[in-house]
Amino acid sequence: MTILDKIITDKKREVALKKQLIPITQLENSVLFGTRTYSLSKILRNSISGIIAEHKRRSPSKSVINNGYSVEEVVIGYQNAGVSGISVLTDGKYFGGSLDDLLLAKASVNVPLLRKDFIIDEYQILEAKAHGADIILLIAAVLKREEIKQLSEFAHSLGLEVLLEVHNREELEKAIMPSLDMIGVNNRNLKTFEVSLDFSKELAIHIPNEFVKVSESGISSVEAIKELQPFGYQGFLIGEHFMKTENPGIAAKSFMNSLLVKS
Ligand SMILES: O=P(O)(O)OC[C@@H](O)[C@@H](O)c1c[nH]c2ccccc12
User: Fold this and answer.
1) What is the homologous superfamily of the domain 3-261 according to CATH?
2) How far is the CA of 239 from the centre of ligand 1 (A)?
3) Which of 12-16, 33-37, 79-83, 143-147 shows the lowest per-residue confidence on average (mean pLDDT)?
4) Beta carbon of 187 within 6 Å of any ligand 1 atom
5) What would the mean pLDDT of 194-219 be, rounded to a whole number?
6) 116 tagged catalytic
7) What Pfam families is this protein classified in (predicted)?
8) Ligand 1 near 217 CB (within 6 A)
9) Domain boundaries, the chain
């Protein structure tokens, strides 16, 4: 059993339990349900940097990354750095995140927010909306084509955008459909944790132009972004490189400054 299989088994149990305690009507009654969302895909299309900075306390591959900062401090720092969007990990067991982190981020900044979790059920998309998300992540490795279609159409019906994550050509071909907004190539294999930017470079040509291309994980230098841009990437999801520093917001700011100097 891979770590990804374990995460999904736990997630199914977690969602089933939460459904018993928090009815959908309660999520739909959230004040945030009525608010409009930001379009990350539009911002990325018009941005010259395209950084999506992630709030990530720990991960199965690296254990603790940063426990010292509150989510508000981190996301305000990211916003001040001028990032295009912010990803908030909401998985508790493996990443130390929560839906409260998303809610606090929503209350603190006004940039597009991605709910980063393992979404397998419409219920989690309602949760995402009720806690201030603008975008959801769907991971092709753990979903069937019909599920991707159902979940992405449901997200759109709530005004949320969809970032579809793939890691290889089979996943991409299985998942491609009009109800997606952005395609993210994960440079980290979630089953083996191997990381290489070559995954983004090799898949780029197979991603149709109507989707904004995002490169995810293992990005730790401005040079990496300069290498990926010629392949058509307009979004760059960065977690650890910022979160492992003393002050993630300051780290993002100096990264953005050197990126803009070199643009
Ligand atoms: O910390 P990194 O290597 O910069 O990676 C960020 C992000 O891409 C990574 O956290 C991620 C990509 N896809 C995921 C799916 C679930 C959880 C986490 C992820």
Assistant:
1) Aldolase class I (3.20.20.70)
2) 7
3) 33-37
4) no
5) 97
6) yes
7) IGPS
8) yes
9) 3-261
Q: Which atom of ligand 1 is nearest to the CA of 238?
A: 4
Pairing label, strands 85-89, 161-166:
unpaired
Ligand 1 near 116 CB (within 6 A): yes
Contact (CB, 8 A) for 255 and 225: no
Task: Specify the long-range contacts of residues 66-70, CB closer than 8 Å, at least 24 apart.
Answer: 66/243, 66/244, 66/245, 66/248, 67/96, 68/246, 69/247, 69/248, 70/104
Q: Output the CA 104–ligand 1 centroid distance in Å.
A: 20
| Residue 62 appears among annotated catalytic residues | no
Q: Is the ipTM of this complex over 0.95?
A: yes
Q: How confident is the model at residue 87 (pLDDT cuts 50, 70, 90)?
A: very high
- Residue 159 backbone class (left: φ over 0; alpha: ψ -120 to 50; beta: rest): left
Among 91, 115, 200, 216, residue to substitute to test ligand 1 (most atoms within 8 Å of Cβ):
216
Nearest ligand 1 atom, CA 117: 16
3-state secondary structure of 30: coil
Alpha-carbon span 89 to 216, nearest angstrom: 14
